[in-house]
Amino acid sequence: MDASQRITALEDVPAESTVLFRVTDGSDGEQEAILVATENGTGGDGIDGETDEDRLACWLNYCQHLTHIKIDKGSGASMRNGELVCANHGAYFDAGSGECTYGPCEGAYLTDLEVTVHDGTVYLTDDDYEYVGAGPVDDDDDLSSSSNVKI
Ligand code: FES
Prior knowledge:
This protein is mostly beta strands. The chain has one domain (3-145): Rieske Iron-sulfur Protein (3-layer Sandwich), CATH 2.102.10. The chain has 1 helix and 11 strands. It has one helix spanning 142-145; strands spanning 6-9, 19-24, 31-37, 56-60, 78-80, 83-85, 92-94, 100-102, 115-118, 121-124, 130-134. It has a 4-stranded antiparallel beta sheet, with no helix packed on it. Strands 5-6-7-8 form a 4-stranded antiparallel beta sheet, with no helix packed on it. Strands 1-10-9 form a 3-stranded antiparallel beta sheet, with no helix packed on it. β2 and β3 (31-37) form a beta hairpin. FE2/S2 (inorganic) cluster binds next to loops. Residues 63, 65-66, 69, 86, 88-89, 91, 103-104 line the site of FE2/S2 (inorganic) cluster. Keywords: 2Fe-2S, Iron, Iron-sulfur, Metal-binding. It holds the Pfam family Rieske.
C-alpha cells in the first residue's frame, strides 16, 4: 500500500459521523471526501464473508441537490439510522449505496471513491483521486460550509 494514501485507522471510522478528508483529481484545487461506516459498522467481526471494505463507503462530500454544496458543515456529515444527512436541506443518503432516499434529489447517487483496508488501515485506492490531507478544504467559500443556502 502507498503510505501517502493512508486515510485513517479502520477502528477510527466513527459510527455516527464520517471521516472528512481532502482529495485531488489532478486538476486545480482540492475536493472533500467522507469515509463512512456502513450499516454494519467497523467494529466486531461483521457478517460472514463480509470484507472490511464491505463495511465502509467513501463519497465525495457534495450533495446531489446542489452539487457545489457540501453535505456537512465542516467537520464530517451526521448520520441517522445508517443514512448520511445533508446539513443544508435535509436530504438523506444511504451510507452504503450513496442513493438519496429522501429529499430534493431523491434517487440520485453520491460520487464514490474506492478505498482498501490493509492491516487495519484504510487507504484511498481510487485511480481518479489522490489523498491530500485530513479535514476540510481551507477556502473562503462560506457558501457551502456555514451559510444557509436558499433553494
Ligand atoms: S444541498 Fe443537500 S439537500 Fe439541498
